[in-house]
Amino acid sequence: MINIKPSQRNSNKHTEDGMQLLERSIDKVGVIESISVATDGTIISGHARKEVFDKQGKVPKEIRLKENEYPVILTDIENNSKQYFEAQILANTTANKNFDLDIEMIEVISDEFDVDVEEVGVSICFDDYIKDNEAFGTDFTLPDGDKSPFQQMTFTLADEQAEQIKNAISEIKATDEYKYAETMGNENSNGNAIYLIIMQWAEQRK
Fold first, then answer.
1. Alpha carbons 111 and 191: distance in angstroms, whole number
2. In Å, how far are 15, 33, 67, 96, 104 from 12, measured between CA atoms?
3. Domain spans of the chain?
4. Residue 180 CB neighbours (<10 A)
5. I need a surface site. Which of 31, 136, 140, 146 has the fewest CB within 10 A?
């Protein structure tokens, strides 16, 4: 049996409520979803399930798939029963409540392995300091305590707009100007690239 182990760079941080709901789901309806791993046993999908399985003392069963096959978990749950619908609903609510995407980790991975984050379903996010919030509406809340010196912004773009922006970010990152640009402590590479592009644009308008 291959040694199943968590990834050191899992992009889902999970949530306390989600983990509690997952444990409740497994207690109530049993194991209805599997874990997928890489060739060395490192988990691709199923970190939270593995954590709960270990806690409950469940034993893994290794299944190797051939080409054009996919795994099916046959349960003892009867169709159109209370347990069936509990399992169906819990599968969706647990996934929703236990989702906390680690954007910083994804950005590090995307930079290192040249992953197109939009192709894997991650919206473009830019961390930047914005002086004028009026242009972006007032539908937001601020955390209690000291104000963070960083802000996260999400834009909705047309495909062509997104492509142009991604190209511009890639191009600016390849320049010496980007390499030595002032970051003001910001570790978000895309945010720094956008800031440099805006500063260059502002300089041209003078």
1. 13
2. 9, 17, 28, 12, 11
3. 16-97, 103-204
4. 7
5. 146
Could you tell me whether strands 125-127 and 43-45 are parallel, antiparallel, or unpaired per DSSP bridges? unpaired
pLDDT of residue 20: 94
Residues 59-82 have a mean pLDDT of: 90
Query: For residue 126, how many other CB atoms are within 10 A of its CB?
Result: 19
The long-range contacts involving 38-47, CB below 8 angstroms and separated by at least 24 positions, are 40/2, 41/2, 41/3, 41/4, 41/5, 42/5, 42/6, 42/7, 43/4, 43/5, 43/6, 43/7, 43/10, 44/7, 47/6, 47/7, 47/10, 47/12, 47/14
**Residue 6 in tokens:** 């968590």
Which pLDDT score is estimated for 136? 46
Place of tokens 């895309």: 190
Task: Tell me the residue ranges of DSSP E strands in the chain.
Answer: 36-37, 43-45, 125-127, 152-154
CA 14, distance to chain mean position in Å, is: 10
Q: Is the pTM of this model over 0.70?
A: no
Cross-strand partners of 153: 126
pLDDT digits (tens, 9 = 90+) for 87-144: 999 998 998 899 888 888 888 888 888 888 878 888 654 443 333 344 445 455 555 5
Amino acid at 143: P
